[in-house]
Amino acid sequence: MQEVMKKRAIELLSDGTVAKVIGWMPGEFSYDMTPAVFTTAEEIESNFVYNDFCGANVSKYVMREQKKASDAKILVFLKPCDTYSFNQLTAEHKIVRENVYVIGVGCDGMADVEKIKAAGIEGITGIESDGDKFIVKTVYGDETIARADALAERCAACKSKKLTVYDEIIGEDGEVVENSGRFDLVAKLEAMSADERFEFWRNELSRCIRCNACRNVCPACTCEQCVFDNPKSGIDQKAAADSFEENMFHIIRAFHVAGRCTDCGECSRVCPQHIPLHLLNRKFIKDINELYGDYQAGDDTESKHPLTSFTYDDAEPSVIHERGNE
Amino acid sequence: MQVNEQFTPTIVAFCCNWCSYAGADLSGTNRLQYPANVKIIRVPCSCRVNPMFILRAFQRGADGVIICGCHPGDCHYTTGNYYARRRTTLLFSMLDYLGIERNRTRVEWVSAAEGAKFAATMNDFVAQITELGPNRRLEDLRCRK
Amino acid sequence: MMLYLAKDKLDVFFEKASEKLNVYVPVDNTNGSAYRKWTPGTVVSKGLHTTKSAKDFFFPQTENLVEFKMSGKAIEIIDPRRETEDYAVFGVRACDVRSFGILDKVFLSDPVDTYYKNRREHGLILGLSCGRPAETCFCGTFGIDAAEPMADVDFTEADNGYYIKANTEKGEAFVASLGDIFEDRDAAPAEEAKAKTREVLKKLPLSNLTTDGFGGDKLDELFDAAGWADLSEACIGCGTCTFVCPTCQCYDIRDYDTGHGIKRFRCWDSCMFSDFTKMAHGNPRLTQKERFRQRFMHKLVYFPANNDGEYGCVGCGRCLASCPISMNIVKVMKKLAKEDSGK
To answer: Which of chain A's residues have a Cβ under 8 Å away from the Cβ of C275?
Structure first.
């Protein structure tokens, strides 16, 4: 895969189709790739990598690069879930689609080094993919782990392997996954009592250190200035000085992306405290699906999102109060 | 003095200018009683109510928040309350999901002619919040007096 | 000879210690660990690092400095400071132990930060030498020996127990006060364990990382280095690296209006944030490149320039493990050093 991608990137750069390539550069331990922008064939030749650990959603970098120079032609490699974010950004006029050459990259799920570490493998110096398993080189000797066991949590409940936007495809395009099980945990929480839910979320959200990684990485968080950074908003906060602020930040953040969140899972991936933030977004998605009909943000660039539209016979807010479990 | 002092909740009511605020006015002119601990905040339309307003009301000491707007179909701006309906539904559902008592929040459609409904709604909501007790789950401890 | 505590007596140790002071131990949570107060039944984490560093004990993420209460025109000023109770922190690794010394240089030099001093003086550090360092560890680069934390009391795991060595008067007094639960044993197994750790340290992928090319006198060369643009390109401007860092010590002071008064509090700030250094006239650090550069220049140039050559990094590797885009001080040092040598 990596070699094909490199070859195409170099071709498109040299024939002038694009001026910049968004990809990944290598890290120290073969699992810590950093997104990067390449402008020459030499850089790509020597420094472009793509492997099972390139999980970062790079669609937001397209927006950033276009902000620097809106007319520069950009090549970007997008995984299926990234294409949803890309579409959503296009729909919100944050990306000029015409100036981007999208190569869709087929995806069978990305690996997560946290899962490998959680399996007790320490001191990782290198990881090689070998069929349905990974051979992990460590300072304490070689280990193997099944690919399924190293699969990122969000990929285990993948909603779609379909590339929703592309100019060409490398690898295989896939299908929307029916019964992905991604709402299972939400349903489990809904079935709990209010006290249990409160305890669950207090335990999770109290770990928040307000590093803002979830917000800054989120492809739906594209405000020029976040309300929590704006001293004129009256609620700007640098730290969660009170449990209320922990709740408020995450409620408002999830609400602001409700209907626009494509469920890419970046928020939970980047959280240094491992707070399952995607469960907040998925709650909104589940509610929207149940109350207003199935909706997948980023499926296309045309449809109106559920919070900027309505029907005359929408459910009344009292449906919440009439639910079974208090 | 009684040992179990009666808890008097603080209620914030966001009322749209065209229907519910006029309804509150009418209930006043009709001399209908509703508790003085309901603090009315007039907004141009129920869809002006940002989720942050609701959270900040709780932060600053509200024990219950009620949003009143025109009946669906009667919005002064034609469609504002339809948007408000979706937003508040989703927000209340999220608060419920986080384990915050769902009955601390309510939406009620009150027209300018429904002075009696306004008073009855407020009396009912105050009774409901009194029974629930003070807001502890969505409270900012720094603001407690 | 050395004092020894069998593993199955660790709980007895915590129980005895808890009679004298509050004991905090690392406890596992979702995919990480954090310090919690020990109570009977607490299971101590076997992990290498807590997700956040131990600096919270002395320099918490938020703390109230002063309160003002208004009633009419009268303003009452309340000092919320209380003398901290004595406490001990168990399981602190060598890198974190060193970080306290770095924080001391900032907070205990004139003018002394009394909030920090209060917490520091009441804290007792129980170090734990590393047995299985991670690939992200590079404490050796800064002259730290992971086998010898040099805390008030050091614990070294060996021979199905812990070998104990007090390094300070405070530590000696603490150990003496619990005296009868330890036994005297030959120190050979402890030395063996340390030697083994040092062998592993040599094999770590970052063991060859050096500070060559960095230091207090390198300002001019490094400030305008070409590498910063590329290195900072993918940075998303979150504060993860600064908040998990044991040595980052920047803070902001804010007033919170409670509706009936003011609470003035201090909270961690991050040079990665866009409003850091924002002043009345604007912000001198306009792009992420300047903010990003600041963090590493502070650790590798400004700090040693003001503190007799001591670097502001201890090589704990937390930023390597938690950066959302896997950019970190190691990549910065390697790239800049390469650039420097290429000149």
So the answer is: 229, 231
Instruction: Answer whether A139 sits within 8 Å of C135, measured CB to CB.
Output: yes
Chain A with chain C: Cβ pairs closer than 8 A? 125
Q: Sheet containing A141-146: give its strands across.
A: A124-130, A133-138, A141-146
Instruction: Note whether C143 and C116 are same-domain residues.
Output: yes
Q: Which residue of B has its CA nearest to C265?
A: B142
Do A188 and A310 lie in one domain? The reply is: yes
What CA–CA distances, in Å, run from B11 to A162, A206, B130? 49, 27, 10
A144 and A201 together in one domain:
no
The answer to whether residue B3 scores a pLDDT higher than 50 is no
**Distances, alpha carbon A88 to alpha carbons A178, A293, A298, in Å:** 21, 19, 4
Region C297-319 average pLDDT: 95
Provide the strand spans (E) within C113-194: 123-128, 153-158, 161-166, 183-185
* Contact with chain C for residue A119, Cβ under 8 A: no
Domains contained in chain A, number: 3
B89 reaches A (C-beta below 8 A)? yes
Please give the CATH number for the structural domain made up of B11-138. Answer: 3.40.50
- In this prediction, residue B5 carries a pLDDT of 67
Tokens of C342: 């290429």
Q: Does A268 lie in the same domain as A282?
A: yes
Please tell me the total count of domains within chain C.
2
Residue B143: list chain C partners with CB under 8 A. 258-260
pLDDT of residue A324 exceeding 70: no
* Rounded Cα distance, C318 and C128, in Å: 17
Neighbour subunits, B (≥3 Cβ pairs < 8 A): A, C
d(CA A29, CA C294): 26
Q: Nearest residue of C to residue B57 by CA position? A: C259
CA distance B42 to chain C (A): 20
Residue span of the structural domain in which A136 resides: 113-150
Asked whether residue A154 carries a pLDDT value surpassing 90, the answer given is yes
Our CA-based measurement puts residue C170 at a distance from the nearest CA of chain A, in whole angstroms, of 32
Using the Cβ of C264 and the Cβ atoms of chain B, whether some distance falls under 8 Å is answered with: no
Q: Where are the domains of chain B?
A: 11-138
- Based on the fold, state whether residues A301 and A192 are members of the same structural domain: yes
Axis-axis angle for helices A184-191, A278-292 (nearest 10)? 90
A282: DSSP letter: H
| pLDDT, tens only, B63-85 | 999 999 999 999 999 999 999 99
Cβ atoms of C328 and C241 closer than 8 Å: yes
Domain encompassing residue C119: 2-203
Given this model, what pLDDT does residue A80 score?
A: 96
Predicted pLDDT of residue C340: 76
> Is there a single domain that holds both residue A192 and residue A317?
yes
Predicted interface score ipTM higher than 0.90: yes
Is it the case that residue C185 has pLDDT exceeding 60? yes
- Chosen domain end from C174, C203, C232: C203
Residue of C256, C260, C263 with shortest CB distance to B145: C260
Q: Do the chains contact at A118 and C205, CB–CB below 8 Å?
A: no
State pLDDT tens for residues C9-42. 999 999 999 999 999 999 998 888 999 999 999 9
What digits encode the pLDDT tens for the residues A242-253? Answer: 899 999 999 999
Touching B: A residues 182-241, CB under 8 Å: 189-190, 194-202, 227, 234-235, 241
Alpha-carbon distances, residue C110 vs C84, C99, C113 (angstroms): 21, 19, 8
Interchain contact, A213 vs C327, CB within 8 Å: no
**Is A175 domain-assigned?**
no
Q: C213 in a domain, yes or no?
A: no
Confidence band of B2 (pLDDT split at 50, 70, 90): very low
C258 vs B143: CB contact, 8 Å cut-off?
Answer: yes
Q: Is A77 in the same domain as A135?
A: no
